[in-house]
Amino acid sequence: MPYQNLFGRMSYVRILLLSLAVPSQGLQDAATPYRIVSLLVAQRLPDQLASFSPYFSQHVPVIRPVCQDCLGVHVVATDKVQRSKVERVATVLAQYLDNNEDGWADNARVAAQMDRRGAVMVMCARPEELDEMNFTCDGFMCQDDYGNETGPPLPLDTGSSGNSTHPGGLPVQGRVLFDSTVGLTDAHLRCVHNRSAICDAPLEEAFHLLTDVGFAHAYPDLLGTQPGSALSLAMMGTIGSCGYNTEETPMGKYARFHFPNCTGTYHYADETCSFSCLATEYFHHVIASYNGEYAWGRADLPVHNRELCNGTGSRALEWENCAAGPDALHASRKALRSGSPDGVALLVDSGFKVPLVMPSGRYSPPLFATSAHLRGSGTLQPRPLRLQDVRLEFGRARS
């Protein structure tokens, strides 16, 4: 049977997923169980965060290291950041890792990559504070104010092709979180169309940490941000004829940006955003259009936001595949499936355990959790990568 008849109108992304023939259980790559241990609040930063101690005195361990060379997943903050806002960021990150809140990372393979690389959310009271400290996090992969790495990256795992998909590793596309961008009871950071929820910067920045350090390394051929991955193919289908406004793409100096004279629905005009950056943003756009973040309205963005979701008679300047309003969640998901069907197939309908529920900032796992494959037996079983009860730690900064 000819190729086109066999697959019909099936996209390249769906063909790639079928060709890999990986069952959803295999995607998660469950690890050997570990014993559940008591979680005690420490009074100082742990030894593996020694390079942070001169600058940061508040620390939340989200995942503790599980091997000698592992670094864990952390949130660190200066003493000028409100404690409640440090807790907010930690709970958002925990809820992304454990979206069903059963006490375990939903995808152990992703959590293991973040543990190995030392994924860190860094918080400062204001941008000037970060500039003054001249901070570098040696050996860790963490975010700075300008979306660049402040520590040396580890090489990206090779994919099924056996070739490194991005020499030198993936940059973390995100920013340090500043006190004013984190919501709690702040009225101005509650969702524009759903005042019972908070729509602040951590929803995006913690997600970038999860995808760039976790998912991209766990599944480089599929969810890596380099050209040729399934994620980048889905993104390119959504960009369509709109092109790129940066030379840092496979097109190089021949890249052209055609918006608004184009038919694509993803068109980012920022010339500093490389191909990898575009893919990182695309991953978040898809999930934020699905989970309510865009439907309910990001409160840290202008009320009359022209970047996201089409308005009446006008196209969004960056991402069109969503809808915003008090009852717009269904419409947003419909717009997403229409405008980026490959992204939905890859990130929503697949077995990668991408978090689809928007974090509330209230992480409430059971006090005792059983191993996933033995639930219902009534027997407590150990399992690796247990998310910590999100408690704040205070340490003494070194002089």
From TrEMBL:
<protein>
    <recommendedName>
        <fullName>Subtilisin</fullName>
    </recommendedName>
</protein>
<feature type="signal peptide">
    <location>
        <begin position="1"/>
        <end position="26"/>
    </location>
</feature>
<keyword id="KW-0732">Signal</keyword>
